[in-house]
Amino acid sequence: MRIAVVGGKLQGVEACYLARKAGWHVRLVDRRRDVLAGGVCDEFIQCELTREEDLTRAFGDLDLILPALENQTALDALSRFSSRSGIPLAFDPRAYRISSSKISSDRLFAELKLSAPEPWPEDVFPLIAKPSGSSGSRGVRLICNPDQLQAAFMAGVSPIDWVIQEYLPGPSYSLEVVSVEGCRRCFQATELFMDAAFDCKRVIAPAKLSTSLSDEFERIGLTLAEAVDLRGVMDVEVILNSGKLNVLEIDARLPSQTPTVVFWSSGVNLVQVLCEAICGKPLPSSATIAAERGVVYEHIHVRPALLETGGEHVMTAAGTLQVYSDFFGADEALTDYASDRDDWCATLIITGRDREDAWQKRCQVLSEICRRFGIEQCLDPEPMYRCNAGER
Asked: 127: part of which helix (H) or strand (E)?
């Protein structure tokens, strides 16, 4: 298959990486030339997506278009071109519009009577504030007292455009759902770990969920996919608090990070499943999923005398990424590393027989990097989950 991946940021890296794992020819399309995914594709075309002749030049000879961006104008242009040309688009515009607004998503959770963080009960702290139209954990803030709340919405920022909720501590999990023509499948759940800014720095599989919670997670995913009449892929994120799964958000688009973890752990290539389903191939049954291997997927930033883990923002600041095998002991890495550089970033992909084995191997990889570069300080920041009692 010959496909176009539109967008060269982290979603584009994910899409190109997994499409090439499927053995497909991948054309990356972006309006900028120097993009993260530039080293993970077979060919690149610079295109603004605004003129018919440019769209035909970029996509006219391909089998499918896979959007990997969140620019609404570009997404609308791709939808129109797909309708005119007949080239399939692996994207659901209607479901995306619902999921791209946290306000609309929260309203949907309430209508479906799904457990979710309650809207902020006045004068109760701590709380979580997040911009409604922002993707993932971008802009999320933990607010511990009224002074911090007031400071957060100074300088003309309106709280109307934000979602403000009770803060629920607990482990976070992600699940992908693919749905085409009323046929829906959930795939492997993964566990998410955040940095100090609530940006996902690490994904581990398999997730530590009981059978009953795993079944409940799948039920939530299928319920949401049916409610938005999904035709494509959707990511569902939950937090486990007091033994209950609470829905945090949904994203009706190809996510970054988790599909690669699912691929290395379960053997299921979500990009391949999605694109083939859009082109008419039946979705696989759960019986086709291989035994799960342990996977640790982690972002690191190496500087002189310092190695630090961090969220996806670490990688957005990197140069063009390349895929390296056996990277200081990691199975693979997506990185801008070069032997003459002392400041570089990498996404490490590390596997083992099980979750514990993969974690031990991960520690050995970080130790080897520190040894090779004479690094004495290794930082692994986490969110400040608790506010001081005096701040309430």
From this structure: strand 127-131
Amino acid at 314: V
Question: Residue 273 in 3-state DSSP?
Answer: helix
Domain boundary among 62, 91, 120: 91
Give the percent of the chain with pLDDT over 90.
77
Q: Is residue 77 part of a domain?
A: yes
- Total number of domains in the chain: 2
Last residue of a domain, one of 65, 91, 117: 91
CB burial readout 188-222, b (16+ within 10 A) else e: bbbbbbbbebbbbbbbbbbbebeeebbebbbebbb
Q: What is the pLDDT of residues 98-133, one digit of tens each?
A: 998 888 999 999 999 999 998 876 677 887 787 766
Beta strand 141-143 pairing with 127-131: antiparallel
CATH of the domain at 62: 3.40.50.720
- Is 13 in contact with 30 (CB distance < 8 Å)? no
Give the pair of three-digit tokens for residue 222: 């299928």
pLDDT in tens, 307-357: 999 999 999 999 999 999 999 999 999 999 999 999 999 999 999 999 999
Is the CB of residue 22 less than 8 Å from the CB of residue 272? yes
Domain that holds residue 327: 294-379
